[in-house]
Specification:
mainly alpha; 7 helices; 180 residues
Length: 180
């Protein structure tokens, strides 16, 4: 085998590549370490990006929970007398909680659907009509469904907290105080 020979077999190539890599290492350029450094830098950047995305999802989720809690709290505080009378005549706490879950679910469904549809249509519009925005948003169908279910569940749970806080009291405590 001659290094400058025009006729080389396939088995000769790894040897030549190894020689080239050795020559590069001898000249001060280590290909493997530069790739490893670049990979580690990209991995660190990806971790920072994922952490920031996770933080923003948590903050927005807490905001949704807080809004839904206060909306449903005002609804149930307006109906304290009704809930107290229902408990006094023997309606079980479980039955009233189920009723409030359904009511909260319906209200949450409408509010979440409206906001969700506006946001989804806006993102789809940006992805279709702006090539740069298409690179910013990754919003496949399964993420749309998962996000909708996540928003709906946290809205129902946070909206039901106020009813749970009212219904944990005895009927006489509920009827004695209308300003719980």
């Amino acid at each position: 085998w001659k290094p400058d020979s025009p006729l080389r077999s396939h088995s000769d190539l790894p040897c030549k590549q190894t020689c080239r890599h050795q020559a590069l290492r001898d000249s001060g350029f280590d290909n493997v370490s530069s790739y490893k450094e670049r990979y580690e830098k990209e991995l660190a950047d990806m971790k920072i990006y994922m952490l920031s995305e996770f933080t923003s999802v948590i903050i927005w989720s807490l905001l949704v929970c807080l809004c839904m809690f206060f909306i449903m709290r005002s609804v149930f505080l307006g109906r304290v007398k009704e809930l107290g009378i229902a408990r006094a005549i023997g309606t079980s706490r479980k039955n009233l909680l189920y009723k409030t879950y359904v009511e909260t679910g319906v209200m949450s469904c409408f509010t979440v659907i409206i906001g969700y549809l506006i946001a989804t249509i806006g993102i789809q519009y940006l992805q279709v009509y702006s090539k740069q925005a298409a690179t910013w948003f990754f919003y496949p169908w399964y993420l749309k469904i998962a996000m909708f279910l996540f928003l709906l569940i946290i809205s129902i749970l946070s909206g039901s907290i106020s009813a749970f806080l009212i219904l944990r009291k005895t009927p006489s405590q509920i009827l004695a105080k209308y300003d719980i």
